[in-house]
Amino acid sequence: MSGNYVINIGRQLGSGGKEIGEKLAARLGIDFYDKELINLASEESGLCKEFFEKADEKASQGIIGGLFGMRFPFISEGAMPCTNCLSNDALFKVQSDVIRRLAAEKSCVFVGRCADYILREHPRCANIFISASKEDRIERVCRIHQVNEEAAEEIIEKADKRRSEYYNYYSYKTWGAAATYHLCVDSSSLGVEETVQFVEEFVVKRLKLRV
Questions:
Q1: Nearest to 109 by CA among 2, 188, 175, 207
Q2: Does the global pTM surpass 0.85?
Q3: What is the 3-state secondary structure (H, E, C) of the chain?
Q4: Which pLDDT belongs to residue 73?
Q5: Using an 8 Å Cβ cutoff, are 136 and 14 in contact?
Q6: pLDDT recorded at residue 62
Q7: Contacts of 1 (CB under 8 A, 6+ apart)
Q8: Which residues pair with 183 in a beta bridge?
Q9: What pLDDT sits at residue 125?
Q10: What pLDDT does 56 receive?
Q11: pLDDT for 210
Q12: How far apart are CA 132 and CA 80, in angstroms?
């Protein structure tokens, strides 16, 4: 892990957080992980990726099929069931292991999925939260999802609720609260490109990077 660092990005839907994370990773020459974590968790656990897609950034909703009854259940190697009987907690455990492994191997940017909490003991990390104005968020969601403003607003409200419940449940901290992160940025203030530059400058200073 010597010399490796991680940047963890939380974000409101429509804030441009994913795009900012991708561009930041490219500028720093490190790997970027968002939805890619689902494929990796599926490959390493031997489970269908649909399990992870359905549970993606959703707090525990009880047991699907009733196999596991405790939080963060112990899953013995080679004994992972392939039927629809895993709790969101079990899937969170698998994905957490993937995140920790990647962070131990190399420097990277993670978007969402409680990566900042999962990597809370990592010696070199920067935890960022990206927000944006309601107007900008609606405009971006309308453009990306090809929906009208009313539908976009509904999508945003549901996504924020889901993400906050997921984060608060697994981290015991507060999603989007300034005290939770090292830096909170409103991307509407500077625009995506300048926000990327601003975050990069912060990360370089915080982690004492040579770029």
A1: 207
A2: no
A3: CCCCCEEEEEECCCCCHHHHHHHHHHHHCCEEECCHHHHHHHHHHCCCHHHHHHHCCCCCCCCCCCCCCCCCCCCCCCCCCCCCCCCHHHHHHHHHHHHHHHHHHCCEEEECCCHHHHCCCCCCEEEEEEECCHHHHHHHHHHHHCCCHHHHHHHHHHHHHHHHHHHHHHHCCCCCCHHHCCEEEEHHHHCHHHHHHHHHHHHHHHHCCCC
A4: 38
A5: yes
A6: 45
A7: 103, 104, 122, 123
A8: 128
A9: 97
A10: 66
A11: 85
A12: 40
**Burial class of residue 16, CB neighbours in 10 A (0-12, 13-18, 19+):** buried
List domains and CATH numbers for the chain: 6-207 (3.40.50.300)
d(CA 201, CA 190): 14
Single-letter residue type at 8: N
User: What is the predicted pLDDT for the residue at 94?
Assistant: 86
Cα 45-49-55 angle, rounded to 5 deg: 100
Residues pairing with 127 in the sheet: 8
Assigned token pair, 144: 């990306």
pLDDT of 153: 97
Which of the residues in the chain have pLDDT under 50?
Answer: 1, 62-85
- pLDDT given for residue 61 in this prediction: 54
Two tokens, residue 132: 């944006």
Q: What is the pLDDT of residue 55?
A: 67
